[in-house]
Amino acid sequence: MLTFNYKIGFLNVVEWIGKGSAPYVMKPNMQVLLNMKLFTSDKELDHFVRPKGSVCLLLPNYLIDLRQSEEMILSNMSRSTRRNIRKAINNEEFILTELKNPTDEEIGKFGEFYNEFANEINIKKCNIGKLKAIRDKGALVISHITNRDDQVLCAHAYLINTKQAYGIYSVLRRYKRGDSQNSQIIGRANKYLDWKNIQSAKKRGCNWYNFGGKLFGEKEQGKNVNQYKKSFGSVNGYDVRIYKANGIRGKLFLLILHFYYKWRRKEEYAFTFETASNSKK
After folding, report:
1. What is the CATH number of the domain that holds 74?
2. How far apart are the first and last CA of the chain?
3. Which end of the chain is flanked by fewer CB atoms within 10 Å, N or C?
4. CA-to-CA distance for 3 and 25, rounded, in angstroms?
5. Has residue 118 been placed in a domain?
6. Contact present, 64 and 198 (Cβ < 8 Å)
7. What is the model's pLDDT at position 264?
8. 139, 194: one domain
9. Nearest-CA neighbor of 209 among 19, 35, 63, 11?
10. Is residue 225 part of a domain?
11. Tens of pLDDT along the chain (281 residues)?
12. Are residues 105 and 170 in the same domain?
């Protein structure tokens, strides 16, 4: 079980990855306790019960079973994804870098690249403190693909432990007018990077490569992201985030989180409650 501490705004968070009870009693200066669990099948999910006094978000995810051979993993991919990976392998313009123990400076550079992307598509910025906390536990990998001009085409930050490699942040270079790299090349580089991450996680003894949760809704961008993850021959499992509070600030955060999920992420939140309700039947 992996445990680490970081901040969300003015709140101190204790997060642990894996099943089981809290790793230790919550200290007074910690306001939020977050448990991240992975369920790899519907059968495992049948035992899920939403803990009292918590806020949960449960999402279908996309998993690659790393217990298979590399040949089998490749054969399960869509034809176009395999073709793109093979083209990328033969492309001497793609330069892979894998940072298994990134420095503060390297984490900072990743954060700058990600935040530029986040600003353009209006998503939450990178939590640098969280990445450093995971790094300090020896569980963070940052990987990226650059071209011969030293332009970063895509980059991933993922958490790795004995059970899974879990994608935290993924960022692509935004194609702009006059850019030397077109969107097709950047997309190919990203598929190649995921393939190299899969190989690396398998070598390090992980059972699963976790692309992360399904994006709900009818937006075209979400559909494209889901299709990308499916194209790797992934199978469905489930990620669950279980938030609990300590003290007044922690309880206020959970109240705000509840209404945020209810209004802004209502489809995922509805799925969580429906699933928890069905598991009790």
Report:
1. 3.40.630.30
2. 30
3. C
4. 13
5. yes
6. yes
7. 85
8. yes
9. 63
10. no
11. 789 999 998 999 999 997 666 655 567 788 999 999 999 988 888 888 888 889 999 999 999 999 999 999 999 999 999 999 999 998 878 999 999 999 999 999 999 999 998 888 888 899 999 999 999 999 999 999 999 888 999 999 999 987 899 999 999 987 555 554 588 889 999 999 999 999 999 999 999 999 988 888 767 666 888 999 999 999 999 999 999 998 899 999 999 999 999 998 888 888 888 876 665 55
12. yes
Say yes or no: 41 and 99 in one domain: no
Helix (H, G, I), strand (E, B) or coil at 120: helix
Domain count, the chain: 2
Do residue 145 and residue 272 come from a single domain? no
Q: Which of 57, 5, 52, 53 is nearest to 245 (CA)?
A: 53
- In this prediction, residue 224 carries a pLDDT of 87
Q: How far is CA 132 from the centre of its chain?
A: 16
Same domain flag for 170 and 144 = yes
What is the rounded distance in angstroms from the CA atom of residue 247 to the CA atom of residue 104?
Answer: 31
b/e per residue 135-149 (b: at least 16 CB within 10 A): beeebbbbbbbbbee
CA 133, CA 126: separation in Å to the nearest integer?
A: 13
Task: Tally Cβ neighbours within 10 Å of residue 104.
Answer: 11
Q: Which single residue is written with the structure tokens 């033969």?
A: 90
Instruction: Specify the pTM.
Output: 0.90
**Which amino acid is residue 93, in one-letter code?**
E
Q: 73 and 1: one domain?
A: no
E strand or H helix at 152, and its extent?
strand 152-160
22 and 140 fall within a common domain: no
The CA-based diameter of the chain, rounded to the nearest angstrom, is 58
78 in the same domain as 150: yes
